[in-house]
Amino acid sequence: MSSAFLSQCQRQVLHNAGFAKSFAKRSFATVTDAPKPHRLAAGILLNRSPILTRTPTKFEQEFFKYQQRIQRALFNPFPHEFYFKQGSVLEAQFNQEEIKRERKAFGDAFVKNMEDKSSLLLNIETSGEEDEKPRPRKSEADEKGDIKSLDRHGQRNLYLLVKGQPEDKYEWRFPKGYVESGEFLHEAAKRDLQAECGPDMNTWVVGKKPVGLFEYEYAKPDPQFQGEKVFFYKAHIFAGQAKAEKITDFAWLTKEEIESRVDKEYWNGTKDMLSDF
């Protein structure tokens, strides 16, 4: 056997040994450097829907007045002579209410000559009766700035924001908790809401499918998980109030108020799940 052939065999053996060694290193590195998984969590966007109708815009107010004028101008006159005795108190009361409706539709200039319809009108107007006035649109909670009250901002959607523990990455956040083995996400959301905020709330989780996902990494190293994947569910509150049990504080806030209170990263990941009104 020639020396050239032996040298070629030795080189091939050394090459194969080097390849096997490098492959083993790569395989070992792949196993040890595998990324850690994210912990699965379920969050709740607990919403208090508006309890007051929204204040009309200037354009809407003028449009409603225009429609009211058209309706008053086209409707058939009510035959009050048939239903009320001429000169009676009931006729005077009807005329008074009719003048109010005309004034509301057309203004004071149009009805200034109508106030002599009844000789008793002046006596009725000065009898001490007051018109019914609607309740103010600002509640006592709005005046005091009570962010824990469900009566504040009646025209807006409010969301429950909780303050977690000092070791949490995000100080202010929505209620959440971890999903247990074999548990459905929507069931975990209900359980975690009650665990964090107490059992004294009558709530309803809208559906079994999440409305959004927020994923983030832990600020401090964790031996098991790299971060969390929080699946958010929408829910409504009908009665009751939250309690600071596993949380340190809570607040009912509008979308704009939430932006100023939470971390920027958290806001960017959850803002599209909230209502603008």
TrEMBL record:
InterPro entries attached to this UniProt entry: NUDIX_hydrolase-like_dom_sf (IPR015797), NUDIX_hydrolase_dom (IPR000086), Ribosomal_mL46 (IPR040008), Ribosomal_mL46_N (IPR021757), Ribosomal_mL46_NUDIX (IPR033650)
Enumerate the Pfam families for this protein. MRP-L46, NUDIX
Q: Name one GO molecular function term.
A: structural constituent of ribosome
Tagged with keyword Methyltransferase: no
A GO CC annotation given for this chain: mitochondrial inner membrane
Grouped into one coarse class, the protein's main location is mitochondrion
Q: Does the keyword Signal apply?
A: no
Q: Which residues form the Nudix hydrolase domain?
A: 37-275
**Entry's Gene3D superfamilies?**
Nucleoside Triphosphate Pyrophosphohydrolase (3.90.79.10)
**Spans traversing the lipid bilayer:** none
Stretches for region Disordered: 121-148
Localization annotation: Mitochondrion
UniProtKB keywords: Mitochondrion, Ribonucleoprotein, Ribosomal protein, Transit peptide
Tell me what this protein is called.
Answer: Large ribosomal subunit protein mL46
